[in-house]
Amino acid sequence: MYKAKIKLVYRQVIDESSESAFEKAIFKASYQEFLLKSQAYNMDGRIKTFSKLKENDGRANSLHYKLSFSVLHFIAQLNNKIPVIKDNLGNKLTFETARFELIESHTEDISLHKVAIHYETPHFMLIDFMGEYLLLTADDHGENKAADTFVVRMQPDLSILSYQEVPHQQLVLAS
Predict the structure, then answer these.
(1) Cα–Cα–Cα angle for 137, 96, 87, nearest 5°?
(2) Which residues contact 156 (CB under 8 A, 6 or more apart)?
(3) Pairing mode, strands 124-130 and 114-120
(4) What is the pLDDT of residues 36-49, one digit of tens each?
(5) Which of 13, 2, 161, 28 is nearest to 96 (CA)?
(6) Three-state secondary structure readout of the chain
(7) What pLDDT is recorded for position 173?
(8) Which residues pair with 7 in a beta bridge?
(9) How high is the mean pLDDT of the chain?
């Protein structure tokens, strides 16, 4: 019996300490793009951080979107698989959409550059909670049909984005 229809979101933070080739590529490409695109909001070069750029000119919030173009091809290479979240059998979770976020940066200090990618999954059917684990299925075959299940552990930066309770089917017994 399904309890709810849910979507998960995972926020992968990438900074100077990130180690995978994917993370390093995202880090470098987004920093180079920040140096280029931030100039439009800082003509005289006196503002050094993303935070201060936003305070000074609200249009600098568009840098989230503008920098995302520099990393889209890296994200596309993931083939819609979240690189760091796996089920208990080691299979990577699928994502439908990925959103880029510029957390902070500095025009003269790359070590202060920090970004995140938010991966949003398709809807899953939640069968049950087992402590910190979710028993899920991607299939919605109805209450009486078999479906392939998988188990995912809740962990930091993994959240339930949407939760829609599934109404219990009322059984009508013939008399």
Answers:
(1) 40
(2) none
(3) unpaired
(4) 999 999 888 899 99
(5) 161
(6) CCCEEEEEEEEEEECCCCCCHHHHHHHHHHHHHHHHHHHHHCCCCCCCEHHHHHHHCHHHHHHHHHHHCCCHHHHHCCCCEEEEEECCCCCEEECCEEEEEEEECECCCHHHCEEEEEEECCCEEEEEEECCEEEEECCCCCCCCCCCEEEEECCCCEEEEEEEECCCCCCCCCC
(7) 34
(8) 162
(9) 90
